[in-house]
UniProtKB/TrEMBL annotation:
This is FdhF/YdeP family oxidoreductase. SUPFAM superfamilies: ADC-like, Formate dehydrogenase/DMSO reductase, domains 1-3. It comes from the Bacteria. Gene3D superfamilies: 2.40.40.20, 3.40.50.740, Dimethylsulfoxide Reductase, domain 2. Keywords: 4Fe-4S, Iron, Iron-sulfur, Metal-binding, Molybdenum, Oxidoreductase. Its cofactor is Mo-bis(molybdopterin guanine dinucleotide); [4Fe-4S] cluster. It comes from Arthrobacter nitrophenolicus. One of its GO terms (cellular component) is membrane. Belongs to the prokaryotic molybdopterin-containing oxidoreductase family. Residues 650-757 form the Molybdopterin dinucleotide-binding domain.
């Protein structure tokens, strides 16, 4: 079944092509072509059929590429281009053989790109790098678990270990992982949510009592207005385009707020409809507000102010007084605060025209059912938490919460990051959860809050964390301040990665290092009691089963559940009543315990087997109840602060190309933005290029501008003239993470502020050719 590794070549940035203006529509026939071509090339016809036709189906497996929910009536091809790429990436029969490790020292792997590392194929055996050596070597599973357990037991304080979790981890594995970690004695549970939607959780938790979406999938088609802020659905969650198309067909208006004119915000050519193949497709955005980076908060405050002014002009006709009186606190304070908002300040912060703001305000006031949806363009700002609180303010003013077609909708990018948090993957789980966990398993969980992702890097840097274990993900590649993160990881005594494929975090290690290969979500998971399934939670709180459909790429691979169970048994043994061996044999036993511990998951085994799974309770959505100190939703006062841009600088945001998923790079093209054969580009508005004395195609060094004295720089990047907002630039993640200081975080959530990086572009001198000896 395994295939020979195809020839993999690194991108030659000297061959980079800029093919023209950015696209004005997404998907269509090219989406189908770029879905199927890599699948057929890398998996073959039969494996492609078994995986892609099972993707997002009721008896299949959940897509790994985003957390977008599944519709009730699913199509045969219920997947998108990036979903197909994610499946191909994981289910490829290309594997890494034992000889690979002898031929590739860790120091060489460190210099390889994420693309090259991932293209080497699936990991199939545990490997270990001893201290002082530069090569991984194969070991057996018992040896691997023994090394980890002995190291963890030798630490004088369990808080000297940190345990990271990727959002692709299943509910069952996540529940056992946090149980193992708390039985070990620490709450050091950093996870990928710390780096993406932590701001959403903080803002929503403090205002409406739940950090999750207050809408269902069906609400999108019932909305009269959808405001899409700081996200690029055409690349990051393409199946959302179908829901937006359905909303438009039902008469909904859509407003896009973003610094870049993304194709997926403009027009959608649905490849499952005739008009998406040979026709114009569906125009999505009725209004596009090209806001400056960091200007979203000012825009939202300006809209709320106009809502209040409209109420004053026509008393009793604009605000939802009954909802506000019965369910909300803080209206008087908000009204007084917004009365002082100055339009000149708003225009400076947003870069918008006054008539654009007035148009959006009129749209909002005219609509009875409004959804505001957002992603990391909002959460990764310094004022990300406050900005999301302003979204909640705006929704609450007209009662757009807890009714059909209305609510708040953060869109998660990892497929189960929300489920992992529900299962206890958080360094700050509430006392009620810890109490239930302790009672269920007969031990006393630690209560002191643990470290989040940024705090973990600081602790490793300062010598406080000796052991780092990651259940999936690419922590070093994903976190901000890349060089600082690398240096911090190298100070640990042991690093462990549980993974399906290689990435940069396998090449930046502690003194000792282990890689433990695991089954992918696409693969059949056979245990002693028979084939197993796992469960996941999507972005609208729907929990459903996920069944692997193809044979594992190699014998001897363990599932994430099995790895956690064996590691826990070797490390914490009988400290709890947990039946680690039994859990590995039969995942129903895990779900029985989840039923007793996790609120909303009662009778879990029965409910997750229902057709379509089940929906977790959500107070704001279900009954307009709010788990806050007052029992009401809270309208908040937030001091406006927009990003200042010193003369000669730009505000840069990091972003994905269309050919990647998070830190996984599928290829070197970004066809929606007109980039081929490279990634080392910086997108800049043509007027800003003129102001800075630069030219399209010129090469520059990108320097971060911060007061800490550290010169963070990306060398020799090609300038691309692009219709970004004035004063704003963009570069690809994760390469541009090097420019984001570890200390630059969103207030409150500590999410890296990757959408507000002040940079200076310095021209690279053009070297003249040396004359020949006879010239």
């Amino acid at each position: 079944m395994t295939r020979k590794n195809p020839k993999v070549e690194e991108a030659d940035e000297s061959e980079l092509e800029v093919t023209g203006h950015p696209k004005t529509w997404a998907a269509g026939v090219p989406g189908v072509y770029y879905s199927m071509k890599p699948a057929l090339e890398h998996m073959g016809v039969e494996r492609s059929r078994k995986t892609l036709l099972a993707l997002n189906q009721k008896d299949g497996f959940d897509c790994m590429s985003c957390a977008w929910p599944d519709p009730g009536h699913r199509k045969t091809f219920e997947f998108c281009e990036n979903g197909a790429k994610a499946v191909t990436w994981e289910a490829t029969p290309v594997v890494i053989g034992s000889e690979f490790w002898a031929g590739h020292p860790v120091s060489e792997l460190r210099d390889r790109s994420e693309y090259w590392l991932g293209m080497q194929g699936r990991l199939t055996e545990p490997v270990y790098k001893p201290a002082g050596e530069d090569h991984y070597r194969p070991v057996n599973w018992d040896q691997a678990f023994g090394i980890i357990a002995n190291k963890l037991r030798s630490l004088p304080d369990p808080n000297q270990a940190a345990f990271y979790t990727s959002g692709r981890t299943s509910n069952e594995a996540a529940f056992l992982y946090q149980l193992f970690i708390r039985a070990y004695g620490t709450n050091n549970l950093p996870d990928c949510s710390n780096m993406c939607h932590e701001s959403s959780g903080w803002a929503m938790g403090q205002t409406i009592g739940v950090g999750k979406a207050t809408v269902s999938y069906d609400d999108f088609a019932k909305a009269e207005l959808i405001i899409v802020m700081g996200q690029n659905p055409g690349t990051n969650h393409p199946r959302m385009l179908t829901a937006l198309e359905e909303a438009k067909e039902a008469g909904c208006k859509i407003v896009a707020v973003n610094p870049l004119p993304e194709a997926g915000l403009m027009r959608y050519k649905n490849p499952q409809k005739v008009k998406g193949i040979i026709g114009h497709g569906t125009d999505l955005a009725d209004q596009f507000l090209q806001v400056r980076i960091g200007g979203d908060m000012a825009l939202l405050q300006a809209i709320s102010k106009r809502v209040l002014e409209a109420e004053d002009a026509h008393p009793g006709t604009v605000l939802d007084h009954k909802f506000l009186e019965e369910h909300c606190d803080g209206l008087a304070e908000l009204r007084a605060h917004l009365a002082r908002l100055d339009d000149a300040t708003v225009l400076e912060a947003t870069g918008l025209r006054l008539e654009e703001i007035e148009e959006l305000a009129a749209r909002y006031i005219a609509a009875d059912r409004v959804i505001i949806t957002w992603a990391m363009g909002i959460t990764q700002q310094k004022k990300g938490v406050a900005t999301i609180k302003e979204m909640i303010n705006l929704l609450l003013l007209r009662g757009n919460m807890g009714k059909p077609g209305a609510g708040a909708s953060p869109i998660r990018g990892h497929s189960n990051v929300q489920g992992d948090r529900t299962m206890g993957i958080w360094e700050q789980m509430p006392p009620a959860f810890l109490e239930a966990l302790g009672q269920e398993f007969g031990f006393e969980p630690p209560r002191e809050h643990g470290l989040d992702a940024v705090q973990t890097v600081r602790a490793m840097r300062d010598g406080g964390i000796k052991v780092f274990i990651a259940l999936g993900g690419n922590f070093v590649g994903a976190i901000s301040d890349t060089h600082a993160a690398e240096e911090a990881m190298e100070k640990t005594e042991l690093s462990v990665q549980i993974s399906t494929k290689l990435n940069h975090s396998h090449a930046v290690t502690g003194a000792e290092a282990l890689i433990l290969p695991t089954l992918g979500r696409t693969e059949i998971d056979r245990q002693e009691s028979g084939p197993q399934f796992v469960s996941v939670e999507d972005t609208v709180c729907a929990v459903h089963a996920s069944h692997g459909t193809v044979e594992p790429v190699a014998p001897g691979l363990l599932s994430e559940v099995a790895i956690v169970c064996r590691l826990a048994a070797a490390t914490v043994g009988g400290r709890t009543s947990a039946d680690w061996a039994g859990f590995e044999k039969n995942y129903d036993l895990i779900r029985d315990h989840i039923s007793h511990v996790v609120n909303g998951c009662e009778d879990y085994n029965r409910k997750v087997r229902q057709d379509g799974g089940f929906i977790l309770p959500n107070g704001p959505r279900d009954s307009r109840t709010f788990n806050t100190p007052t029992g009401k939703a809270i309208l908040t006062v937030n001091e406006l602060e927009h990003v200042e841009r010193p003369a000669g600088t730009l505000i840069l945001q990091t972003m994905r190309s269309h050919d990647q998923f998070n830190t996984t790079i599928y290829g070197h093209n970004d066809r929606y933005r007109g980039i081929r054969k490279g990634r080392e580009v910086v997108f800049v508005n043509p007027a800003d290029l003129t102001e800075l004395g630069l030219a399209d195609g010129q090469h520059v060094d990108i320097h971060g501008v911060y007061s800490d004295g550290v010169d963070r720089v990306l060398r020799n990047y090609r300038v691309v003239s692009y219709p970004s907002a004035r004063g704003c630039a963009a570069a690809y993640y994760p390469e541009a993470n090097v420019l984001v200081p570890l200390e630059s975080v969103a207030e409150g959530s500590q999410t890296p502020a990757s959408k507000a990086v002040i940079v200076r572009l310095e021209p690279v001198p053009v070297l003249e050719e040396e004359p020949t000896a006879w010239g």
